[in-house]
Amino acid sequence: MAVPIIFKTIEESGLSTWIRDSPSIFAYWFILSLHAIGMGLLVGASVVIDLRILGVAKDLPLAPMKGLYNVIWLGFWIQLASGTLLLIAYPTKALTNPDFYLKLTLIGLAVAFMQMLKNRVFNDSSLAESAMMLKGRALATWSLVFWTGAVTAGRLLAYTYNYLKYDYRG
Amino acid sequence: MNPAHLHLLLNHSPIIGTIVALGLFVMALMRDQDELKQASLALFVLIALVAVPAFMSGYAAQDAIKDLPDVSMAMIQTHQGTALLALLLMEVTGAAALAGLWRFGRTARKEDKPWMSSPARMNLYAVLLLAMATVGLMAVTGTTGGDIRHPEIMSGPATSSIIGTLGERIIPAFQYVVVDYSMWVWPILEDLHFLGLILLLGSILALNLRILGFLKQLPVAPLQRFIPWGIAGFILNIITGFLFFMGMPGFYIVNVVFQVKMLTIMIAGTNLLLFYCTSAFQTLEVVGPGEDAPRFAKFIAVSAIVLWIAVIVLGRYIPYGEVT
Description:
Chain A is mainly alpha-helical. Chain A has seven helices and two strands; from the N terminus they run αααααααββ.
């Protein structure tokens, strides 16, 4: 399969080269750190909501936990920004690896399920707490499955790529 | 100071510390004093933390002396192996002590003594038995370590003990499983390390953001129920992280970023154990929906969030700190 030439153009751009090759502590490792923190916020807050729906900390009133969606969205935007920069640094590495598309799909599903949980459970003020838990049960379980899959697929990107750069097989 | 100095500085504390903590604990059990029980349980947990750098810095001490004329590599290996066994048992003891502390934190307020119900008493006796076994292994570790640089104290030729022989084999076995057995072991450990991070950070954030006044409609007390999930993540990360170290000790021990990460974990971990798992948390249990947490709790909450995020960042910078 031919690798699109546009990947090479991106890799030769100033921003891509800087992120990848600069010895500055604010280049590659800094962006990677942001990507790890964003993951902790996005997935960590989602997992706390899911666990509560599934019955952990039952004494905790469920409705005000909706506030954790702010943490989820903060994490999401950090991930989108830092992930885009990492993609600019290594477009060939990511986009020639099927695992990368698997990761994006799983993230899409996980975020969609968290949003469904918000719309159907948290935004429905007619529901009593036990009804919220019952209605959210399947959504919370699937969200945990998708998040675990997304994190695993993301972590394995470092070990499954075919090309590191455009003319450089890994 | 280099990591070899650190070994000399720390290596007596797990040995002496376990003996002291065991003595205190026995006294507390005999007199049935709950404060003393809590204090000795906390001491076991702290020793379990200090034992980690004491063990890791041993690799640097080994590098510093291995080429000296009258130093025997076989003796070093025996010492390392027994040290590993002692460390593992110390960590199990620390985990059992932590479980005991958690019970105190949850139940000490009640009038009667529910923590002396049989499962809790079992927990305390488990700590007692584990600690006695640990003291034995620590003693062997200290003796075999002393023999390396103080041959004058040896009585007669070195005798091989069962523990010594086992110890000699266990370190190469770890290395084989983590690095050589399959190329997938390391990535799987990395994945588990990230999942542990999520559990830890998620539960720390939920509780501490509430203490700081976000999510203010939540009462504080039930949020503490997420802390065991965070601790489960923490323990998962201690296990997987320790396996990384055992796979490539030479890479990690001289890496300054790794050293600072370990130090930060010690501080953040102590904070987690002492503040959220003991009766110190009781001052927060009365903070209901819409109420403000006390100022000192907010200070601890900020420091916990900052410290754990620093741990994540330092972890990501470990490759940057590689010594070539």
